[in-house]
Amino acid sequence: MTVLTAPAVLAGCLAAALSAGAAFADNSLVGFPEDHAEGLHYGTVERGNITEELYTDREAIEAAKRGEPFPSGTVITLVDYRGGDLHRYVVMEKRDGWGALSPAGTGAGDWLFREFAADGTPNPAEDGTRCMSCHRPQARQDFVFTVDRMKSVE
Ligand code: HEC
């Protein structure tokens, strides 16, 4: 019986690990962007009752203008307002070597993604996999959608 049950136990463990997100990158490396408000506001996206304010730093803007990949250490913060109220923060951060933390095919370059509630607490249900799958088609501009807005910053 042991021979028959061992694979079943292993399969169960694997399913549990997958459902817990353990097979994916540890996005807890991305901290709350305390300094986003002092960062450089480079754009606003409005869609229905959603308003998104976009922040990064001067080095990232200069890289975008030169058409180069973003430097290691870049943090981009999107502050999401719904009906005028602060709803959440979504953050992407790039560090040399972070790409190796995502299993092949699930990542987005050296970026990790994390979501924070309006009070700054991280959303534990969001490991960044969904974020990365939607940003991955932007690979030719280093996985960032709003590069054109960065280029138009003075
Ligand atoms: C369904 C596709 C989709 C998903 C899922 C998604 N994003 Fe985005 N993201 C976008 C688009 C499109 C933009 C450009 C702004 C806009 O049009 O709202 C964007 C913009 C951003 C930006 C500003 C930099 C940029 O790329 O322009 C950040 C930061 C960001 N997203 C983080 C996240 C995080 C963190 C998650 C997961 C919690 C996430 N995104 C999930 C589509 C997505």
* Largest sheet data: 5 strands, antiparallel
Number of domains: 1
Q: Count of DSSP E strands?
A: 5
Unreliable runs, pLDDT <50, ≥5 residues? 1-22
- Chemical compounds bound to the protein: heme C
Tell me the β content.
25-35%
Q: For the terminal residues, how far apart are their CA atoms? A: 71 Å
CATH topology: Chalcone isomerase
Roughly what percent helix?
A: 25-40%
CATH homology group: Cytochrome P460
Q: Could you report the average pLDDT, rounded to the nearest whole number? A: 87
What layout of secondary structure does this protein have?
Layout: H1 2-19, E1 40-47, E2 50-56, H2 58-66, E3 75-82, E4 85-94, E5 111-117, H3 129-135, H4 147-151
Antiparallel strand pairs: 1-2, 2-3, 3-4, 4-5
Bound molecules: heme C.
Q: How is this structure best described in words?
A:
With 154 residues, the chain is of the alpha+beta class. It has a single domain (24-151), classed as Cytochrome P460 (Chalcone isomerase, 3-Layer(bba) Sandwich), CATH 3.50.70.20. It has helices at residues 2-19, 58-66, 129-135, 147-151; strands at residues 40-47, 50-56, 75-82, 85-94, 111-117. Strands 1-2-3-4-5 form a 5-stranded antiparallel sheet. A hairpin with a 2-residue loop joins strand 3 and strand 4 (85-94). The model is unreliable at 1-22 (pLDDT under 50). The structure holds heme C.
